[in-house]
Amino acid sequence: MKQPVSTPDAPAAIGPYSQAVRFGNLVFTSGQIPLRPDGTLIEGNVEEQAHQVFANLKAVLAAADCTLSDVVKATVFVADLGQFAELNAVYAQYFSEPYPARSTVEVARLPRDVLVEIELVAVVP
């Protein structure tokens, strides 16, 4: 049975989607962009934006009784793969071994013209 997951500690969904959905012991987050919980945008570089994305993801996972250590898959969308090294350095601050599986994809455009969006799949312990 699908259960929506939501928290005021991350930006509210602005469309017909949930911040995350729990299905059994799996949690699927929606993609998070660098919005503060109040909806204002972090307009800095990819590192600054990625830190806010991870703050949002941590809040959503916490609402589902998970942490980043429970993540098994990450999908990273970037506006410019030329910034991969900078993004990867931030990403490495949030995960430890065994690292989640990951896909990183350069896209033509992201919502609000941000530089990074990340979605996760986690297992509830």
UniProtKB/TrEMBL annotation:
It holds the Pfam family Ribonuc_L-PSP. GO terms for molecular function: deaminase activity. It comes from the Bacteria. One of its GO terms (cellular component) is cytosol. Belongs to the RutC family. This is 2-iminobutanoate/2-iminopropanoate deaminase. It comes from Deinococcus yavapaiensis KR-236.
